[in-house]
Amino acid sequence: MSADTDADLPADSDLPGVLPDALRAELIAFRRDLHMHPELGNQEFRTTAAIKARLERAGLKPRVLSVGTGLMCDIGGWDGARPMLALRADIDGLPIPDTKTVPYRSTVPDRAHACGHDVHTTVVLGAGLVLAELARAGRLPYPVRLVFQPAEEVLPGGAADAIDSGVLDGVGRIIGVHCDPKVEVGRIGVRPGPITSACDRLEVALDGPGGHTARPHLTTDLVTAAAKVATEVPALVARRIDARSGLAVTWGRIEAGHACNVIPQHAELSGTVRCLDLAAWRAAPDVVHAAIDEVATLHRAKSQINYIRGVPPVVNEAGSTELLRDAMAVRRGPYAVEDTEQSLGGEDFSWYLERVPGAMARLGVRPVGDTTRRDLHCGDFDVDEGAIQVGVELFTAAALLDRHRP
User: What percentage of the chain reaches a pLDDT higher than 70?
Assistant: First the structure.
C-alpha cells in the first residue's frame, strides 16, 4: 500500500460488503457444484445457465455472450458517462481426470477444474451479489460489470470473443484474480508490470524421401533432423533474442518412424514458445521460423511450421495494482498482501489489458500451515475454500475504493 494513500483508506468497519455467513455457505456449495460438473472451453452451457439463474434470482439482468457461453452483467446501471469497473472470471475446465478423493470430485470423466476457474467464477458471482445489495441501498459509488468469460484454456483465449461481445464497452478498468497454490489462504500476491508470460503453440512437420538405415547418406536422415531441430532451435532462438526477455522454446512431443531399420518420411514436433517480454513476444514468430528453417535445411529436411499465436504477457497497470493492494489491506491488513514473481504461465486476461487499464492478483488457496507442494493443471489440485470469502471481499472493497478512474 502506498504510503501517501494510507491515511485516505477507511477502516474495514467503515467499508460495507462483508460476506454474510449464509452467502458464504451458498457460495461454497455453488463452487462445489461447478467442480463436480466441469466443462471445456466454449462448451460451458451448464455453467453459464447456473450463473445466469443465480444472478436473475438477485434481480439482475445478465446477458449471455454472442458465442453462446459466458455472460456479462451490469450492477448499478451504466449512464454512458461514468466508466465501469469490470470484475473478470473464467469459467472453463481442463481435459484431465480429477484424481482427488473428495465428495465434490468431478463427475465428468477426464474433465476437471484443475486451474481454479470454479473459484474465480464463484468469487465474481459472490462479489456481484454483495454489490447488487449495496447498489439497491444506494451505497455503490460507481457501476460495476461482471464478466464471466469462456474458453480461457483454448488458444488464443476466449477473452477475444468476450471483447467482441462488448464486455469492455464503457469499462474504465478491469481486475481479476488467479488461484495460486503457493500463496497461503487469506493473502494475495501482487506485482505491477508483467505478472505472466506470453504463450504460443508451435507445430513442426519435417519431411524427406525416407530410406534404409544402412544408407542414411543417400537420403534425408529424418530422425536425426528432428532431433537437431529439438535441441538446436531452442539454443539458436536464445542467442537471437535479448536473454532478459526470457524467450524459451520447449518441446512437449516428438514423433517419427515405426521400424528400427527404416528411415521415416515424416516427423512431427510440437511444443510451446513462452516469453516474459511483450516486444520480444511480437518478434518471436519470425525468429523461431528462421531458426527452424536453418536447422531443417542443413539436414536436407523440408519443414512446415504452424506457429499458433496464443496470448501476450499480462502487464499489470500500476494504478490498478495499487487498487488491489489497497482493497486487500483494508479488508485483511497490509500484511495480507505480498509481492509475487512473474510466472511463465499464460493467461488471456492480457487481451483485456491491451484495451483498458487493469491488473490481476494471485489469490492464495494454500491451507494455512500446509507445506505440501501443489501446482495448477494437476489432477489433485484443490483449494482451501476460505479463499472464496477472501476473493469476494477483495473485489467488493476494490469496487468501493475505486473512485479515481483512468
Answer: 95
